[in-house]
Amino acid sequence: MTGVDKTKARISVYQGDITKMGVDAIVNAANPSLLGGGGVDGAIHSAAGPELLAECRLLHGCAVGEAKITAGYRLPAPFVIHTVGPIWRGGQHDEAAKLAACYTNSLLLAEQFKLRSVAFPAISTGVYGYPRPQAARIAVDTVLAFLAAHPSVNKVYFVAFDAETARLYRQLLEPEQPV
Ligand code: AR6
């Protein structure tokens, strides 16, 4: 196996609900207030319970591209890493760099907290409108680069809510496989 293949082996694609994942941390696609919202953010807050919102209130928000960590409360995952993706505004407003920063900063926090497994939703591809193919490529490239340089985070899951997003990830990770 080549080095790249070994790194790819530390990534899995999963189609379903991220709130069910029994990993060390799930990542939340939040907004700058960190006070909840719709989409995956709403699902995470309702599954975690009101204690999550109470802890989020203490964090005083989060800038786009950055990440903050809380406990997971009633979730199977003991930690939630909250990151804020960019709103898609046509692609000329630094969206790609900001989206990549979400993945890198989330994984840096995971490393700092000695977390071995992390599950990501497709950040920015819902309410924030980021085109799914471009977002999937940024997610895969950024996570591969991080994992290659940081052995302590052992496993990353890309959690797709829909089949199309799962297919995009699989195509990027296993381009030789028919999908
Ligand atoms: N598990 C996994 N993925 C999910 C789930 C789930 N339970 N629910 C939705 N998705 P979005 P954004 C997928 O809109 O675009 C919130 O209101 C969904 O299909 O949740 O970053 C925040 O408070 C999509 O692929 O996040 C912000 O205001 C992906 O998760 C804003 O939305 C992200 O969609 C953030 O928008």
Structural account:
This protein has 179 residues and is α/β, with parallel strands linked by helices. It contains six helices and six strands, in the order αββααββαβαβα. The protein is globular, with a radius of gyration of 15 Å. It binds ligand AR6. Ligand AR6 binds next to strand 2 and helix 2.
Main features:
179 residues, six-stranded mixed β-sheet, 6 helices, binds ligand AR6
Short description:
The protein is α/β, with parallel strands linked by helices and 179 residues long. It has helices at 3-8, 39-48, 50-57, 95-112, 132-149, 163-173, and strands at residues 11-15, 25-30, 67-71, 79-84, 117-120, 155-160.
Strand ordering within the main sheet: 1-6-5-2-4-3
Say what oligomer this is: single chain
Give the uncertain stretches in residue-range form. Answer: none
- Arithmetic mean of pLDDT: 97
Q: Structural class per helix/strand content?
A: alpha/beta
Q: What is the CA–CA distance across the termini?
A: 22 Å
Proportion of residues in extended strands: 15-25%
Bound heterogens, unique: ligand AR6
Number of strands: 6
- Helix-strand topology string: HEEHHEEHEHEH
State the helicity in percent bands: 25-40%
Radius of gyration (Å): 15 Å
